[in-house]
Amino acid sequence: MPVDPVCGIELAEELAVTHEYEGKKLFFCCNGCRKIFIRKPKKWKKNI
Ligand SMILES: [Zn+2]
């Protein structure tokens, strides 16, 4: 299962919010976490 790199929870792929970063598809629990990632991707990319 994909893991939200911001809050660290496991997600059901079909319910997740997606975002593409450096050619990789990322999954987030909500648009809030997605926005947090987009604001500072370098801070969170270690969790990808
Ligand atoms: Zn989240």
Automatic annotation (TrEMBL):
Domain TRASH: 4-41
SUPFAM superfamilies: Ferritin-like
GO terms, molecular function: oxidoreductase activity
Cleaved signal peptide residues: none
Protein name: TRASH domain-containing protein
Organism in which the protein naturally occurs: Candidatus Nitrosarchaeum limnium BG20
